[in-house]
Amino acid sequence: MSRKIYVSAKEVAERAGVSRSAVSRTFTPGASVSAETRRRVTEAAHELGYHVNHLARGLMRNESGIVCLIVSEMDTPYRASLVRALTRRLQSQSKVAMLINTDRSDSSVDQALKQAISYRADASIILSGMPDRSITDLCLRSGQRLVLINRDEDRDGALMINLDDQEAARRALSAFLEAGCRSFAFANSEVMTPSLMAREVGFQAAAREQGLEVTVERYGSTTYQSGVVLAERLLEREHTPDAIFCANDLIACGVMDVARHRYKLAVPEDLCVIGFDNIEQAAWSSYQLTTFAQPVEEIAVRAVEWLSDHGPVEIHSHRLGTQLIWRGSVREAKS
Predict the structure, then answer these.
(1) Each residue of 191-208: pLDDT tens digit?
(2) CATH of domain 66-163+296-320
(3) Which pTM was predicted?
(4) Does the chain have fewer CB atoms within 10 Å around its N or its C terminus?
């Protein structure tokens, strides 16, 4: 037996004994309809299991309410927190998020985005520096509004949201110097997104201004396991660092575990460590990691507010600061 999926507005009108336009007005915010008509329509809709087809209604206004989230490394705690904040904010604005995973740099990503565009997605938010610039081009050519988060592209008609990563790196060096550290390293991944490289370059530049050198090691992706390998490389050297600034918190956690358990170094007495992102694990008693908190909620608010603005599309750019969260992985400042 065939199953009927959708109930039409015409069927609701017939059950309620009203016109088709009365049904439409009943479910249109602010439209004029009598209390009795509204009661009859809503009762009929409930009995029949009717739901408004917002997609069809939006397409009549040339809007679908769909926003693509183009994301890589979705399983990392920071990326998950940003996706959570964005989807909550989009839902509060009656928009629907469509998630596209870009971990694989092959034609599947391009095909998924084209499929999303075929559903008349209004906009896309690219959450990382990994996806190829061709994805940005495809979004703009399709007439979408576009938000770029932590990317180094300057595109007409797009909103760019970036962090002041280099300033954070300078504060990291200052914290190490105040703790009495004298040998510095930066632990990075090989992903080399603009934000990760800005932290590395900023840390090196701040050290050079003080007449100091920074040992840089890069390995793999921005994961705990990469931190394990990076710690081995740095701590096997003849001259080991007493301060390591890590590109993110997952790397920092791997570095700390190897330093303490394999090399028997005390943190922060023998080695000071600073991370980036302020993920939940950073506050765990096992780590008590000093780190920089990204303004996740502010990023979500600015992105969705801009997408909800129906005025002229112009170039906009925001560079947001980060908060240094002090915990136990850096020694107290020496007098």
Answers:
(1) 888 899 999 999 999 999
(2) 3.40.50.2300
(3) 0.80
(4) N
